[in-house]
Every structure is written in structure tokens, then in C-alpha cells.
């Protein structure tokens, strides 16, 4: 099968034991870190100082998903904190092209996220500026929500745009990704899979990562 990546989301981990929880998913490609600010989404998680500490606590690179207002102002600080990939939401960004270029110039992978009701088509011309596109398969804000099947056509159309332009960018899905939904996501064209409750809710998180990878490879 194709090259797939499994990124456990520490939103579903025990925040009092983040270092151990990061180490419990040995074999994961990236650690997905959900940053929420109580403004862009109705939930509050963690910020730059915690990302700095996490970057020191694990060898797994950090995939920071910023669900925050004014990412133009804050995203560069997450690169400086040690994130290897920084995702901002297009709905929140004032100048997405400038921001993606700044993230890349600072040395991280630049990624842009779309909420479920945000279409991909208006952003076709931006794709070459990005290293990854994130299609949310739940409304951002909380772990453990049900996967939105109605996002599958958007994943498929995005994969077609990536192919049409011959781009290298990765296509990530986030929200409700589990043993019962990951195959549909992979079949639609996703190649990077975020999983929170499906990994940290399992008795053996590292085994859950391996099982998801096997399923996604088809
Ligand atoms: C939701 C976050 C997700 C969340 C996914 O807003 O962006 O990363 O942790 O959790 P699950 O996999 O449980 O849906
Ligand atoms: Zn996320």
C-alpha cells in the first residue's frame, strides 16, 4: 500500500503525564498537538511553553494544530518552540499565503486546515504554498466526536486537485478517525491520519498505532 502516517493526538492523553504519554506511542510518525484558545473553538488546551517542554521530552516530531484566533501572530512562535509542522486554520488567518511562507522560512512544514463547512475549491491556487492540508472530519474543539462521512467527497476532490497539480503535499484527516473509519479515509485519498481517542483510549496505544497503520495501508 501507499506510504501512510499515523499521528496520535495528545488531546486524548493524560495532560498530567504528557511526557510518558508521548513516549507511549513509540512508532508514531508525528505527535499531534491540539492548541485551542477558547476563542476560535470553545475549548482551552495548551500553548507555547507546553510545546517547548514536549519537544524536549520526545524524539517524535510535533505536528501542532492551531485552533486559535490570529494565527498570523502566533504560529511562528510554535516553530520557535520546536514544532516540525504547524497547521493554521484558513478561517482564522488574515494572510494565509504570507503565513505559510513565514512558517516555511522559519524551518517547519506549513499546513492549512479546513473546518467541515469550508470548501477546498477557493484555495486551489494556494496548495503549492503548503506542505500539508488538513481536512477536519469533525467540528474542531473536542476529541471523541463521531466521524463526519459527508467529508469523504471533499477528501476525494482534494486528492484529485493534488494529483492534477502534481504536488507533494500531504493530506491529513482529523476527527473520529478509528478502526471503523480509517479505511474509508485512506480510500478517499488521505495519507496522514490523526487519531486521539482511538489511540489513547486503547489498552496499548503503541499497538493501536500499528493496527491503524496496517488498516490504512490497505
Ligand atoms: C479536535 C482535534 C482532534 C482531536 C481528535 O478538534 O483537532 O485532533 O484530538 O480526537 P478523536 O480522534 O478522538 O476524534
Ligand atoms: Zn487536531
Main β-sheet, spatial strand arrangement: 1-8-7-6-5-4-3-2
Largest sheet, strands/sense/barrel: 8 strands, parallel
Computed over alpha carbons, the radius of gyration is 16 Å
Total number of domains: 1
What is the subunit organization of this protein? single chain
Beta-strand portion reads: 15-25%
Distance between the termini: 6 Å
Could you report the average pLDDT, rounded to the nearest whole number? Answer: 97
Q: Which ligands are bound?
A: D-xylitol-5-phosphate, zinc ion
In the CATH hierarchy, the architecture is Alpha-Beta Barrel
Q: Which superfamily, in CATH terms, is the homologous superfamily?
A: Aldolase class I
Task: Provide an overview of this structure.
One of its GO terms (molecular function) is D-ribulose-phosphate 3-epimerase activity. Pathway: Carbohydrate degradation. With 218 residues, this protein is an alpha/beta fold. It has a single domain (5-217), classed as Aldolase class I (TIM Barrel). It has eight helices and eight strands; from the N terminus they run βαβαβαβαββαβαβαα. It has helices at residues 18-23, 48-57, 71-80, 96-105, 152-164, 182-188, 197-200, 205-217, and strands at residues 5-8, 31-36, 62-67, 85-89, 109-114, 132-136, 170-174, 192-195. An eight-stranded parallel beta sheet has the order 1-8-7-6-5-4-3-2. Strand 4, helix 4 and strand 5 (109-114) form a beta-alpha-beta unit. The mean pLDDT is 97. Bound molecules: D-xylitol-5-phosphate (DX5) and zinc ion.
